[in-house]
Amino acid sequence: MKYFTYLAMSVMILAVVLLFFIKKPNGQPWLSTSVIHSESAEIKNEMVALSSGALDSITSAITTAANFETETPKPIYKWQDEQGQWHFSDVPNKNGKSEVVKLNPADINVVVAEDTAILSGSAKSAVKPFPQRAPAIYNSESINKLFEDAEKAKKRIEQRSKEVESFSGF
């Protein structure tokens, strides 16, 4: 098996080397260093274009998220009806007095609604609620904190690498 592997590798190497010497009908070799160089330059340019396009899309997403934060929120109104039930809406009550509610986005918690039908006995099977996910809010403060944490981690890794190098000197 070992010799077969050596033989197969040798045949493959020989085939690639022969492509440099075997000529096409027009007299040019099938493979040349200039062809390899031009193809690799094209691939490099495509990769740079793709990576810069990805960077542009990430930058625009962050800018969009930052602009989303700076938009003025619509006011939220609350009022109480005749039965004592409180109502919250983005439009004021047509039939009475409404108060404007000031909300702090940091105080808002989004929770998964649970099926309460099981309490009344009408549920056919106990269904587990969806797992709670982290809110998908991208703000400049959290992004800046992420970059700061990454810098701290990088410095710590560099510090530990220096410590390891100093110990290996013994």
Characterise the protein shown here:
- By secondary structure, the chain is mainly alpha-helical.
- It has a domain at 73-102.
- The chain has 4 helices and 3 strands; from the N terminus they run ααβββαα.
- The chain has helices at residues 2-18, 33-70, 117-120, 140-168, and strands spanning 76-80, 86-89, 99-101.
- Strands 2-1-3 form a 3-stranded antiparallel sheet, with no helix packed on it.
- The radius of gyration is 33 Å and the shape is elongated.
- The mean pLDDT is 78.
Provide tags for this entry.
single chain; 170 residues; mainly alpha; 52% helix
Largest sheet: 3 strands, antiparallel
Shape: elongated
Q: How helical, in percent, are the residues?
A: 40-55%
Report the total helices: 4
Percent of residues in beta strands: 5-15%
N-to-C terminal Cα separation, in Å?
45 Å
Low-confidence stretches: none
- Average pLDDT score: 78
- Return Rg in Å: 33 Å
Number of strands: 3
Strand order of the main beta sheet, please?
2-1-3
Q: Tell me the structural class.
A: mainly alpha
Which series of helices and strands comes N to C? HHEEEHH
